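fyi for ur records
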Amino acid sequence: MINQSESLPRSGLRSASIYVLVAAVLWGTTGTAKSYIPGDPDPMAVGAVRIAIGGLALTIAAWHTGSFAKGRTWPRLPMLLAAIGVAGYQVLFFSGIDRTGVAIGTVVSIGSAPAFAGLLAWIIRGERPARRWLQATAVSVFGATLLIAASSGAQGNVLGIALCLCAGLSYATYAIASKDLIIAGHSPETAMAVAFGGGAILLSPLLFERDVSWVASGRGIVIALHLGVITTAVAYYLFGLGLHRLPVSVAATLSLVEPLTASLLGILLLHESLTLLQVSGGVLILAGILILAVPTRAVPEPNEWQPPDGRTLQVQ
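which gave:
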């Protein structure tokens, strides 16, 4: 059984954590961007448009780099689960924030993801939660809980909360499956392209069944490109680079920067009030991330996990 790393090692793994943090900041703009879409867009249609553009961009990028030409076999179950996780997250996340509001929906969706990811990684991949990860996740999730309590504009919609929790589970499923694709020898950009290309195919019927006329407006196309290219293609490419080096549960915990970003944007752009609970929640999220990000002295152990490129990652 594999233990998760107690700390993020220096050099390459520090860079990996930065990739995930930058990706999370980009994700944090998603809910705010949706609020600027003209009219009253269907949340499922927004998710379908986002994935159609993002999946296409990722596929073009992977094809351009020649990643598809390496001839490696593709494990079918992780491919399917990655696509289902991507598609499910889009539909559930946008439907959830439509009922609860941007702040609380983002916090619940991403705030629940580390716990789901840690549990799934333990059950499926044998990555036993390490003490340091448990501490960091507990602190960060508590901070996310304070952000929920501080979201004065959020509606106490039980169905919305349930949808957001399912979105967190979908996110964790996608992360676990994508990690398996990377471990199988596929590059991060190719794994992301397959996951999001598959997700786009699953959601494609929504493009014909739902109203997507908002994309035809000037503001609509700008927001659609932002959602598809920036918050999907670029962000998930960076996330894939980080996931190549990090345990899934660690990457999911670092992703808690997303609700922090969403809350800050809500304050700055949507004119939400800044409260003591919001400040406290943000500080705790950052504290939890620092627990993971600040390296401790590594102690050599025989139990190590070997990344696909041969570099050694200490997993004591």
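The chain is about 70% helix and 5% strand. thats all i got for now
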